[in-house]
Design a protein that fits this description.
This protein has ten helices and ten strands. It has helices at residues 3-20, 64-74, 93-101, 115-123, 138-150, 162-170, 190-199, 215-222, 233-236, 242-251; strands at residues 43-48, 51-52, 56-57, 78-82, 106-109, 128-132, 154-159, 175-179, 205-209, 228-231. An eight-stranded parallel beta barrel has the order 1-4-5-6-7-8-9-10, surrounded by eight helices. Strands 2-3 form a two-stranded antiparallel sheet. The longest helix is centred in the N-terminal third of the chain and has 18 residues, at 3-20.
Length: 257
């Protein structure tokens, strides 16, 4: 069984208690705008995750609130929060903590297979929610996409292949992320991600996901089709992420294709 299949099996077990959970009152949803025009900087999404299947344990020196504040000060345009508990030591509560600490829009990063997860993301303060195309059948992805939109959240549809790119566009996704990491093997393939990104129409806001560790990589992505890039693991290895994120933000200036 691959990594993604293992995670999804756990997600199915989590749905029952999540449906019974009492959710907090929903805060106002803030707009998410990651699109850029020619000459504008690449928008960087900084991620909070305390552990991952590929990296193991990451830095917990800073609290979620402290790290969110550091990301905002360093120039991130959005905050991504891992909410999975079993594999990433995350929590929906981390959304509320991140929201209280900064004004950045929040992306709930979860392995969404049911509407109740979207409802929880909305209640805990997310402004956007990740929908991974590989997690569900196409018709289910469409229902989740519509539910997110009806809830006021901005759905970010994560894809990895050309076929998934075509599906996302067909379903009307306006925010699409291409993951350079294979969710089964956890291997990075930047060249494949670049090809898929280049195929996305201009009507879509395109996000490069995973594999960003150095300013040189950010500069390369800045010259690509991408409007934004998510930076996660390399920041989470830093007890103080501000200096590195500041370097990456400076590298994100420049022209796009």
């Amino acid at each position: 069984m691959g990594v993604l299949a293992t995670i999804l099996e756990v997600k199915r077990q989590e749905l029952v208690p999540l449906r019974k959970a009492r959710l907090p009152a929903c805060p106002l949803v803030r707009p998410v705008d990651l699109a850029r025009t020619d000459g504008e900087p690449l928008r960087l999404i900084a991620e909070i995750k305390r552990r991952s299947p590929s990296a193991g344990a990451l830095s917990t020196r800073l609290s979620v609130a402290e790290r969110a504040g550091a990301y905002a000060r360093a120039g991130a345009r959005m905050l991504s929060v891992l909410c999975d508990a079993t594999f990433f030591d995350g929590s929906f509560q981390h959304l509320a903590e991140g929201r209280a600490a900064c004004d950045l829009p929040l992306l709930c990063k979860e392995f969404v297979i049911d509407e109740v997860q979207i409802d929880a993301a909305r209640a805990w303060g997310a402004d956007a929610v990740l929908l991974i195309a590989r997690c569900v059948a196409p018709e289910r992805l469409e229902r989740l996409l519509r539910h997110a939109e009806q809830s006021g959240l901005s759905p970010l549809v994560e894809i990895a292949t050309q076929a998934e790119a075509e599906l996302a566009v067909q379903l009307g996704a306006r925010l699409v992320g291409v993951n350079a990491r294979d969710l089964d093997t956890l291997e990075i393939d930047v060249a494949r991600a670049e090809r898929v990104l280049a195929s996305l129409p201009r009507s879509v806001t395109a996000v490069h996901l995973s594999g960003v560790t150095q300013p040189a990589q950010v500069r390369r992505i800045t010259e690509s089709r991408a409007d934004a890039a998510l930076v996660g693991e390399v920041l989470m290895r830093q007890d103080d992420p501000e200096p590195l994120l500041g370097e990456l933000v400076r590298a994100a200036g420049g022209k796009r294709m």
